[in-house]
Amino acid sequence: MTTGLKTFIILAGLALTFSSCKRNIDFTPTQRAALIFHMHHYINDTKVTTGTMGYDDSGRRYQLSQASFYISQITLHNSDGTDWQSYGRYTLVNLGGEEYLVDSVPVGNYRSITFTVGLDPTTNAGNPAQHATGPLSPQSPSMYFGDGQGYIFMNVQGKADTTAAQNGLLNTSFSYQVGTDNLARKVSMPNHSFSMVAHQSQILDIKVDYSVFLQSLNFKTQPTNTPFTDQIFATTLANREQKMFSWGL
Length: 249
What we know:
Elements: H1 3-17, E1 32-43, E2 46-47, E3 53-55, E4 61-78, E5 83-85, E6 90-94, E7 99-106, E8 108-117, H2 121-124, E9 144-146, E10 150-160, E11 172-179, E12 185-188, E13 194-196, E14 201-209, H3 210-214, E15 224-225, H4 231-241, E16 245-247
Parallel strand pairs: 1-14, 11-15
Antiparallel strand pairs: 1-2, 1-7, 3-4, 4-5, 4-6, 4-8, 4-10, 8-12, 8-13, 9-10, 10-11, 14-16
């Protein structure tokens, strides 16, 4: 079997395995390549998954039971000054998952990317029941506030140690959901050159640091929040999303 054929089969498999979308992916060898995000989930310097203990800069201990968010409107910035944007594709990132095939991308040399944490208003106005499968379909745990309220863009839940000495039990549960059209946030990644080569895949390693999202929160007085309970607090959390992402190792 030739190397080219092997690569094509691998890409076809990735298309079925890593991403759900609204349209088929075009892997025309002379035009497109597969862009894969490898998401590395962290609390400060500790790589985490469900139930893993992590510490922030102050020494506070966390344990996440859920950390899920939507990525959309991915834009690649070409080294020649032009941009290419992905349309109609939505990626749901979960704490237990790492690799996501986000789109088929034109070949070229790129200097960085931007993306949105959240969904566009038209998509957000939809109902998960309209989708049989894929990231916009009903999820468990749910990523949907309810009729007329839209999807949950960022959903972070877990437990924290709130003892003064920070050496006690994980005694306080927290649950924060960010959503609504005005709380979608654009993330601009630092410059990081990469090339998309025809008929091949490119993996971009991205670190997600949930300690940025949870920094300095008073879990005793405000252990839960949605945009409908406290819009000001929800805006603060949404603004933190823009600083959660960096290039991974």
